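The material for today's practical consists of a large collection of protein records. Read left to right, the backbone structure tokens trace the chain's path through space. An example says more than a description, so a record of this kind follows:
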Amino acid sequence: MVIERIGLACAAAMLVAGTGLARAQVVGPEAERVVHATEGSGFAASAADEKAASERFAAYVMALAKRDYAAAYAMLRLSFQAANPRLEWEMNLRKRAALWSDGTLRVVRLSWYQDPAGQPPGLYAALDFRGDRQDGTMDCGYVVVHRAAPGGDFTVVRTDTSEVPRALMEDGVPKVDVLHQLPCYLGKGIATAF
């Protein structure tokens, strides 16, 4: 079972419970999985692909939760770094102090893209997540990772995260009039606690 294979990889990320740091959840069986590939390619992500993408996601999220900006920045693809100078990138993260902390991030969808048009060739994985904080607020967003060649390391190529304050939450989910404004995918059963 996939969850057993990648559970150990992300177990360290989940051990921070009670420390006030975010916990990254392994991509569990409840997460939606989508593959975007050219017709007839026969592409299917392997357990090793999922493990490697999940490990990069967990490492990146945990580095941000620990405020280890140097480690997180080192995980970005070089072209992403070139477009986002380190000091500016870090200052933008520091402005959003609660982001990536004090909660549990749950992957709700894992989408695979093989050699998408207009992008450098390789395998891409988009991990959509929601992060529920103890104060009743929520983060949601995605992290996209890329591997240029089989056996290589995944690098972070794009991230986007929204913060939803308590005033815009209702019964653990964003209010209906807020949902359409979020660049987040919250899953098919957003009102379901999982």
About this structure: The chain has a mean pLDDT of 79.
